[in-house]
Design goal:
By secondary structure, the protein is α/β, with parallel strands linked by helices. The protein has helices spanning 5-8, 30-35, 37-43, 78-90, 109-116, 176-192, 244-256, 273-277, 301-314, 333-337, 343-352, 380-384, 418-422, 428-441, 443-447, and strands spanning 11-14, 47-50, 94-99, 128-129, 150-153, 158-161, 196-199, 263-266, 288-289, 322-324, 356-360, 450-453, 459-464, 468-473, 479-481, 486-490, 503-505, 510-514. It folds into three domains: 5-101 and 176-206 and 242-440, Glycosidases (TIM Barrel, Alpha-Beta Barrel), CATH 3.20.20; 109-161, Alpha-Beta Complex (Oligo-1,6-glucosidase, domain 2), CATH 3.90.400.10; 448-514, Immunoglobulin-like (Sandwich). α6 (176-192) packs parallel to α7 and α11 packs parallel to α14. The longest helix has 17 residues, at 176-192. It is globular, with a radius of gyration of 23 Å. It binds alpha-D-glucopyranose and calcium ion (CA). Alpha-D-glucopyranose binds at residues 60, 63, 100, 164, 200-201, 267, 328-329.
């Protein structure tokens, strides 16, 4: 059976501001990414996803798009993009770009026109509403980034909706012209040869047409997220309206109209599996909704197993899973999971579960969450809601040779570095490289079925296909596992190449056993 490329691919996410600067402004750019592609080849990944590089006032660092079919001068030019795409394709790397359909920048010409008058032909391209009888916002919807989701426009006497910053007005996807125009922006990049889209907050684009209030929610704060007004609502009306599926069915037709190889993954923060799986449609919507369930999992074998099993159970046989352990919105994985000694076990988890993994830049060297002093903080979310800032996971890539020859846009850490790890066989980078090589040499790791197995308390054990068993000890004690086979890979090199009958796994240790 021939499989689409994205089934066996490992995706590598690049935050373009932080990968490599080439013109001395302290901000990474597209030529910088091109100059570092060999790192991706050396690592052994198959595709890169680049966060937005469109013209933007940078209120949300590029997730506020002022032109969907160009490159911000800060990042380079369209020619630079074409060079990057060609250089990636020369190296057999696929390129996925970030498409931001839910909202544009308030500086986008469409919004400027929409805002100019109630009678402007583009008025209905955004979500405008009259005030409530008391003059306040039309309903109780909140912005993800804090405060009401409605901004009053004095000149035209209506509110506009912004699910994120007030500088990010929501487009009105119920207007067919919006869909047509936004689909044209997809064609623009597909025609240039882009391999796929990562769709920003994909489930947000359709809201309740009656714009009813959200009911209150029953929630508890977690270690990493305090609760704001936003979290206290049950978001049944301000996003995820079932009409969203029709839009994605039409988008799929557009993508399939190319060569059958163009791919779309949606950023979908939906944690009800039955609702989440609907974004695959009948194999006629998104190729995958991102699966974020492990991002927020405690370091606990039973908990992680139950999340993976639940996801696997809900997938139709043809649907392909995926796993995410980090991205530009979350605390760096080793800090979230409890320390650098867990980085190797986390890598085994990410790269041996069934499905497409996404690595966030720097994970391969164990980049830590940075503590950014208040006066250097940049993320508007953190500036609006203290504690929510995402700068700490967005610091410049630590190459060991200069990221920039001026002041980097965010402070950067000295250690660890790519240069310091490249030739060290015991480094995390070498560990990732070997693990990715093994993934390519053992077909069961790429495409074998998944089945979890009961094991000792605190050990997550699962089988991939007929030949591979993975065991990870999530406890801080030794655990013994009995298996027939040979340890082909381990967090502990001493265990490799021994027969696995009676292997003792130390704390946070993992093994890949070939039976
Ligand atoms: C997504 C992005 C995030 C951005 C938000 C608004 O969640 O990942 O970085 O701030 O959408 O576009
Ligand atoms: Ca630059």
């Amino acid at each position: 059976m021939s499989r689409p490329w994205w089934h066996t691919a490992v995706i590598y996410q690049i935050y373009p501001r932080s990968f490599q600067d080439t013109n001395g402004d302290g901000i990474g750019d597209l030529p910088g990414i091109t100059s570092r592609l060999d790192h991706l080849v050396d690592l052994g990944v198959d595709a890169l996803w680049i966060s937005p590089f469109y013209p933007s006032p940078m209120a949300d660092f590029g997730y506020d798009v002022a032109d969907y079919t160009d490159v911000d001068p800060m990042f380079g030019t369209l020619d630079d993009f074409d060079d990057l795409l060609a250089a990636a394709h020369d190296r057999s790397l696929r390129v996925i770009i970030d498409w931001v359909p839910n909202h544009s920048s308030d500086q986008h010409p469409w919004f400027r026109e929409s805002r100019s008058s109630r009678h402007d032909p583009k008025r209905d391209w955004y979500v405008w509403a009259d005030p409530a009888p008391d003059g306040g916002p039309p309903n109780n919807w909140q912005s993800v980034f804090g405060g009401p989701a409605w901004e009053w426009d004095e000149a035209t006497g209506q509110y506009y909706l912004h699910s994120f910053l007030r500088e990010q007005p929501d487009l009105n996807w119920r207007n067919p012209e919006v869909e047509q125009t936004m689909f044209d922006t997809v064609r623009f990049w597909m025609d240039r040869g882009v391999d796929g889209l990562r769709i920003d907050v994909a489930h947000f684009i359709m809201k309740d047409p009656a714009m009813r209030d959200n009911p209150p929610a029953d929630v508890e704060p977690t270690e990493f997220k305090s609760l704001g007004e936003y979290d206290r609502q049950d978001h049944i009306h301000d996003k995820g309206h079932p009409d969203v599926h029709e839009v994605f069915r039409r988008l799929r037709v557009l993508l399939d109209g190319y060569d059958g190889e163009r791919f779309a993954v949606g950023e979908i923060h939906v944690f009800d599996w039955a609702e989440w799986v609907r974004y695959y449609g009948e194999a006629d919507e998104l190729h995958m909704p991102f699966n974020f369930s492990l991002l927020f999992a405690p370091w606990d074998a039973a908990e992680i197993r139950s999340r993976v099993d639940a996801m696997e159970a809900v997938l139709p046989s043809w649907a392909w899973p995926n796993h995410v352990l980090g991205n530009h919105d979350e605390v760096r994985l080793i800090d979230r999971y409890g320390g650098p000694e867990r980085a190797r076990a986390a890598a085994i988890l990410l790269l041996t579960l069934r499905g497409t993994p996404t690595i966030y830049y720097g994970e391969e060297i164990g980049m830590r969450q940075a503590d950014i002093p208040l006066d250097r903080q940049q993320d508007p979310w953190g500036l609006q809601v203290p504690g929510q800032g995402r700068d700490g996971c967005r610091t410049p890539m630590q190459w060991g040779d200069p990221f920039t020859d001026s002041e980097p846009w965010l402070p950067m850490m000295d250690e660890p570095t790519v240069a310091g790890q490249r030739t060290d066989p015991d480094s995390l980078l070498s560990f990732y490289r070997r693990l990715l090589t093994l993934r390519r040499t053992l077909p069961d790791l790429q495409t074998g079925d998944y089945r979890s197995i009961d094991g000792p308390d605190g050990v997550y054990l699962f089988r991939r296909g007929e030949s591979v068993v993975v065991a990870i000890n999530f406890t801080d004690e030794d655990r013994r596992i009995d298996l027939d086979g040979e340890v082909r890979f381990s967090t502990d090199p001493e265990l490799e190449a021994v027969s696995a009958e009676g292997v003792v796994l130390g704390p946070d240790a993992g093994v890949i056993v070939v039976t």
